[in-house]
């Protein structure tokens, strides 16, 4: 994929942070509702809780999770971060893919089932309310973890990232040697493209934005 221009990268980063952290906020709301649904003795409150959860499920879960995934993919493939070059990016990709699938294939059907039960006046089965409490606990922990690794960018390069960097350095050294042989002045042939060592990438990158 072609590298993003600076304004495009900044714009997509804003979309990425808004959607992915918005997904985290939505999960916090689902957790409050899930706790209330699992603990209330009032059938009216329970009905209101699961109807509200279904509304969030219908309107927000899939758009937010897909936007976080797609904007993250564009940022990875369109910048020197790469998709499989840095461990924190690669792990985020797989975790987000798993969370998106679990939301679509497990959480939403459970929300629909709970809302259908309260609509018919039946209470929600204990197992379903437990599931609808456990799901936001697990996903909230996951999104907090992903936010933390996004900001801290830990663990350095993957094996693929190390190979990529070595290849770039070799290509850079060859170009520099070629330029020197041709008698040109000693200017560096390889310019900084933002692909910094993992330990300094976040600092250098943040400073450039
Ligand atoms: C719930 C899921 C996600 C959350 C909470 C999240 C959160 C964030 C946050 C807060 C940042 C900004 C960090 C900073 O600028 O210091 C960020 C950046 C980034 N994220 Fe995510 N992200 C998620 C999913 C993904 C996915 C699935 C990918 C890749 C496939 C990804 C790739 C990236 C990349 C490459 C950056 C750095 C962009 C740049 O500096 O140009 N993210 N993410």
Describe this structure in words.
This protein folds into two domains: 6-155; 162-208, no CATH class. It has helices at 6-39, 43-77, 87-119, 126-152, 159-181, 198-208. With 209 residues, it is mainly alpha-helical. Residues 183-209 have low confidence and may be disordered. Helix 1 runs antiparallel to helix 2, helix 2 (43-77) runs antiparallel to helix 3 and helix 3 packs antiparallel against helix 4. It has six helices and no strands. Protoporphyrin IX containing FE binds at residues 9, 13, 16-17, 20-21, 23-24, 68-69, 72-73, 75-76, 79, 81, 89, 92-93, 96, 143, 146-147, 150-151, 202, 205.
Give me the secondary-structure topology.
Blueprint: H1 6-39, H2 43-77, H3 87-119, H4 126-152, H5 159-181, H6 198-208
Helix pairs in contact: 1-2, 1-4, 2-3, 3-4
Bound molecules: protoporphyrin IX containing FE.
Strand content: under 5%
Structural class: mainly alpha
Mean pLDDT: 88
Largest sheet: none
Query: What would the principal axes of the Cα set say about the shape?
Result: elongated
Rg over CA atoms: 23 Å
State the helical fraction: over 70%
Number of separate domains: 2
Count the strands?
0
Tally of helical runs: 6
Low-confidence stretches: 183-209
- Small molecules in complex: protoporphyrin IX containing FE
Distance between the termini: 21 Å
Order of helices and strands: HHHHHH
């Amino acid at each position: 994929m072609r590298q993003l221009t600076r304004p495009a990268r900044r714009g997509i980063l804003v979309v990425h942070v808004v959607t992915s952290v918005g997904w985290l906020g939505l999960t916090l709301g689902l957790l409050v509702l899930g706790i209330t649904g699992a603990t209330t003795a009032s059938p009216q409150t329970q009905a209101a809780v699961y109807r509200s959860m279904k509304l969030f499920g219908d309107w927000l879960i899939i758009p937010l999770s897909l936007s976080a995934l797609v904007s993250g993919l564009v940022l990875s493939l369109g910048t020197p971060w790469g998709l499989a070059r840095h461990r924190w990016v690669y792990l985020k990709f797989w975790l987000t893919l798993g969370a998106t699938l679990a939301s679509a294939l497990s959480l939403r059907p459970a929300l629909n089932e709970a809302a259908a039960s309260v609509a018919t006046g039946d209470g929600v089965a204990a197992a379903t309310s437990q599931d609808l409490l456990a799901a936001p606990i697990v996903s909230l922990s996951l999104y907090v973890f992903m936010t933390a690794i996004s900001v801290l960018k830990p663990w350095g390069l993957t094996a693929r990232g190390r190979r990529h960097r070595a290849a770039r350095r070799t290509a850079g050294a060859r170009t520099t040697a070629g330029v020197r042989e041709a008698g040109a002045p000693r200017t560096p042939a390889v310019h900084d493209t933002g692909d910094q060592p993992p330990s300094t990438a976040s600092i250098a990158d943040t400073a450039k934005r």
